[in-house]
Amino acid sequence: MIEIRNILAPTDFSPHSEVALKYACALAERFGAKLHVLNILSEVLPVGPDPMISPILPPEYYTESEAQSREALKDAIKPEWGKPAAVETAVKWGSPVEVVIEYAKATHADMIVIATHGRTGLSHVLLGSVAERIVREGPCPVLTIRDPN
Predict the structure, then answer these.
(1) Residue 37 in this model has a pLDDT that exceeds 80
(2) What pLDDT band is residue 149 in, cutting at 50, 70 and 90?
(3) Does any domain span residue 1?
């Protein structure tokens, strides 16, 4: 029998992610599962004309970015989307694919619900697809949600 106790829903707070989060909430309610909502912050490396002289971001950048993400996570789930057994939120720094996979393993995720932006052609080749890599490399089943709008 398939048991789904932990559902991971990564979000970047985009409209696409919101649609996937709605699905994750409904599934978590249906299965009586805990919903893990994860936001990943990428370190932006500012580069000037001389790549050897990169300005260093002040420590406040990191603490403020995390605080903003934690605040946004509080409002990311709407009550009308469903009532998961529990909700846990997290903010992590790093590469989205690696962080999602590590977090899924650490939380024993039984399913990952993730948005796909539906890029095709050259933009898909150049930008790659975070969702596609998570489907290929993830430790559990991955449900991809494409926003029809």
Answers:
(1) yes
(2) low
(3) no
Question: Residue 88 carries which DSSP code?
Answer: E
Query: Domains in the chain: how many in total?
Result: 1
DSSP code string of 33-64: -EEEEEEEEPPP----SSTTSPPPPPHHHHHH
Position 116 scores a pLDDT of 85
Residue 100 sits in a domain whose CATH number is 3.40.50.620
Residue 6: count of CB within 10 angstroms of its CB: 22
Q: What is the pLDDT of residues 42-79, one digit of tens each?
A: 876 555 556 556 567 777 888 899 999 999 999 999 99
Domain of residue 12, residue span: 6-146
Q: Is 103 contained in some domain?
A: yes
Alpha-carbon distance of 54 to 111, in angstroms, equals 40
**40 with 10: CB under 8 angstroms?**
yes
Q: Which residues pair with 7 in a beta bridge?
A: 35, 111
Looking at the domain assignment, is residue 139 inside a domain?
yes
In a domain, 80, yes or no: yes
- Give the pLDDT of residue 132: 87
Q: Is 28 exposed, middle or buried (0-12, 13-18, 19+ CB in 10 A)?
A: buried
